[in-house]
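Consider the following input, taken from an annotated entry for Lysophosphatidylglycerol acyltransferase 1 (Accipiter nisus).
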Amino acid sequence: MAVTLEQAQRVGYTCLKALLRFAFMVANNLVAIPSYVLYLIMLQPLRVLDSKSFWYIEGVLFKWLLAMVASWGWWAGYTVVEWGDDVKAVSEDEAMMLVNHQATGDVCTLMMCLQDKGTVVRQMMWLMDHIFKYTNFGIVSLIHGDFFIRQGRAHRDQQLVLLKEHLEKYYRSRNRKWIVLFPEGGFLRKRRETSQAFAKKNNLPFLKHVTLPRLGATQVILKTLVAPQENGTPAGRDAVIKESKSKGLQWVIDTTIAYPKGEPIDIQTWILGYRQPTVTHVHYRIFPVKDVPAEPEALTHWLYQRFIEKEDLLTHFYETGAFPPPRGQTKAISREMTLSNLWLVGIQSLAFLSGGMWYCILQYFYHCLF
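Applying the prediction step yields:
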């Protein structure tokens, strides 16, 4: 079949746009990430004198970095529509997000849709696969205090111990409030077959759009961060509530990400922008932590129920293009989240100005020394 001139022009335009976007992303990383690191090195005396102010500033810089990642998708036409409970209502409280995991774009989607949720982004902690430690953003996550978890049965017990120690050491001391977790333990396409085999063997529901979640990290987070007696955790046991002002973890936010036609966006698409403008849909359901059971067997059942509900939500979405209305209501209400282009341009400009400033400073010291 012959390629028409119009088709060739369209392909050429797409390739040129992808190349320019990739060049911009590389430049963005080269100025923004070193600037983040150098600012925090410069502020180390403040960390000793006033740790709270230091981590406040770090959180602001971290939010700006995530906004830059969000801008790559936003300017490509990848937007988000939100459904269900309004999480802005609990943005100042401590919460754990349980998110289904389909592709690398899930993280970018969350980076975008949480930008307008008050202080959430600068005070959140991410749990992510250890492979992300070796990406361009790994140094940022290490400094911020995110936790990199190794998958696999051989590492499971050790990783849960390390997670508990990490939460005890960094969560309260750095004033974290939200923690993001993907309980499935991997991408849908990689875990679906294994999950379905496990479900069949144990007489559990057959799931196509999600996989059965793993209990370990969720249980550790609840036992470590929930205030005594909130969900049956005995007072004085594992809960780490060292500061009198902290109420502990108060909410669990069941978060379901849905892509049109079930075709997830990956990080390559987010960067290069070769896919047509796409609306990703995110559904929230908020549970008070006191309603979440503490005992392992009951918690496992509760967690399974959340993912069975996700399956129903996604099935309805793929059939109708919308999430179903909440229980007791006849109509589902969606909310289109927005980002300010002026704000995004301002942050990007600051990043490039900072990169130029640090380059000049380092050049000056280099010439002075050599």
